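A quick aside before the break. I want you to see a complete sequence-to-structure record at least once, exactly as it would be stored in a machine-readable document. Don't worry about memorizing anything.
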Amino acid sequence: MSRAGQRALTLTRWGMNWERLITAFLPLVVLLCVGFAALLLGGVQAMPLAVLPWIAGIWLVLVIAAAIIGGLRFHRVHLSDALLRLDRTLPGRPLTALSDRAAIGGEGALWAAHLAQMQAASRHARAVPPDADLARRDPFALRLAGLVAVVMALIFGGIGQMGQGIGAIASTISPRNTAQAAVQGGPAWEGWAEPPAYTRRPAIYLNAMPEGEVLELPKGSLLQFRLYGGDGTVQQDIGQLQGDDPQAPVFRAEKSGSVQVMDRRFDLTVLEDHAPDVALGQAAARRADGRMIQDFTASDDHGVISADAVIDLDLAKVDRRFGLAIDPDPRDPLDLPLPVQGRNRQQIQGQLVQDLSRHPWANLPVKVTLKAVDGIEQVGQSAPRATVLPGRRFFNPLAASLVEMRRDLLWSRDNARRSAEILRALTWQPDGFVADDLYAELRIAVDLLESGDLPAEARDRLAETLWQSAIQLEDGGLSDALQAMRDAQEKLSEAIRNGASPDEIQQLMDQLRQATQDYTGMLAEQSEAQQADSPDQGQEEGQQITGDQIRQMTEEIQRLMNEGRMAEAEQLLDQFNRMMENLQVRQSQGQQGEGSEGSQSMNRLADTLRDQQRLSDEAFREAQRQFREGRTEGGNGDLADRQRALREDLEQQRGLLPGQGSERGDEARRQLDQAERAMEDAEQALREGDEGGALQRQADAIQSMRDGMQSMGDMLAEQGRQAQDGQQGENGYEGQQPGQSPGGQDTGGADEGQQGRDPLGRQNASRSELGEGGPNPASRALELLEDIRRRMGDPSRPKDELDYLDRLRSRF
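That is the input. The structure line, written in tokens, reads:
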């Protein structure tokens, strides 16, 4: 047999011996683990003395029986058994073949060739891993329970506990030595201070506290003691005794004082638990879809458990006219839970986002009060704030009338007769005014209101019908398109998170494109209709964006997914979702809108460039400070976080740049993409403490941003000239000389007049404002490197300083 076969055979035999050993003595091992854990964890001391000898005796009998049975079942593995198991894993059973003898014909050349082949096969032998099949032999996993008990005992137990446990067993035989054994086995007492669970503070082992240290505990903490030997006492003036066992007294800390246990004194300071503070932020805002957004803050010394916003009608401030003239039906205040989930509940800043546009109090005066509750159910309350409950606004006259009637019915059922008269007037001669399906619904509502019997359930169903009718009139199907777009957004986000296949993601992306196109098209038609009917309406402050920008943003999401950058695609999709919430589409006509859009992009890029220059300056000053102090640090997380924020902002701007498809526009995007990569490298260098590398990459980012802005400026200037030429052609000024106004006055030349200004004639940011005129971070880094080399050339400097300078040089 080859040497490899011999080694594999030996290891296999050892493994088989272990299998038989653990199989035979597994019950004994479990029993020993349980007994060892009971001694270390104090389980023996906790047992009543009358029961302890019986349990100890039963355990000892079981141990002896398990040892005897294991000894009888265990048999050592013979070499032939190990050879047979190993041989089964090899093709052709070469190990057995090596021990064979030729039956006839002697052992000639053919037999020698056969043995050589088997010898070669034995070299591939590998030890068979042992398999005791414990899962089948121990279906209740008692082996794992014993192992866990031993680990817990080693972590939380102690040798003293073992001695006390043995002493407790011995005391059942010789009671006179109980106290002496307890004292000799460990300390005469032990104590723990356990703060209330809601404070999330750990328990304190009092024996480990330094002498004279003041113990500070939250109010309601439990102090538990265990006395050994029977002659100990605990004196205290902090609260009430919670138990009646003199050997294990428990006290609840209610006030500051002291605790005397035998010869040890603890001075205790009880920390009062104050009620939580909660306050409203700025006045509630209304989204374009009618949702309410209310900022709030909450704090507590141990953490806020729950918080609610209570909204009640401010009846004194309601304009009591028309359907609101009569007294309202009783209605309970609104109780809305505030989002306080998270790790840090001691200081909370959050937002309550709720759609209350269907509530009867929508667009009416209300009072908002916040309440917060801590772990011991103390309640903190904010001062009531008078406000108008945000709700959806309707601009279609018929829709607004239906919503007002709905509000009157929900205000009081006594308004049924009045609402019926208004509905009858609205449905008089409906041709060209009310659609057929809506007319049928409104006539049913009139009959129901005039019946004189309007239960609360029927009133609520009618209110829902009026609301849906108003939505249909106002949106013309826009709400369905919005819901379809939201569903497509949610499906795509979930597919990205769950790692769906590329085909599935592409299909969902196409659905999102189509749903977004349908929604924005309907929204644009509605905006144009509103502007034609009432120019002063519909001008709520909101996000302005063009259809081209929406297309560019979806294309950017598609590009990120194609490149496999799913996390970035999901982040951009989330920004897209938030943007579409408050969307007001304005379709850009001609070059003037494009120029305004481009100038806004240039302004944002200029701001980002200046922020990048300031960040580079701070990184350079940080490197100088470390050099002067003669030390290095492992990184600067604050500067790295700011660098990441700038990169993410630039990435968003790049996705919304105009000029998609144009040569200069694509060049600008390419340069900004290079700037983003340089920013990412600079962020990594800052986190690793490589200021020299960070400065170089920041300089690259600044240069790439300048090049990108130059390309964008050239594109906008060209668009501006084309727009100017087109306007002059329309006004009959094609024959003007460059640099002359329509009146013939010299303007200094068309090209010259554009120098220093953007396509709309506004002053461009100067080169110095864009950071080009200031000192270059790369040149400053070279100056610093030169100064390091100069200092290293001075042999009179201490060796430690020269070693530090050498390390610092390697970073630049």
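Two observations worth writing down. The two ends are 62 Å apart (CA to CA). Residues 691-731 form the longest helix (41 residues). We'll return to this after the break.
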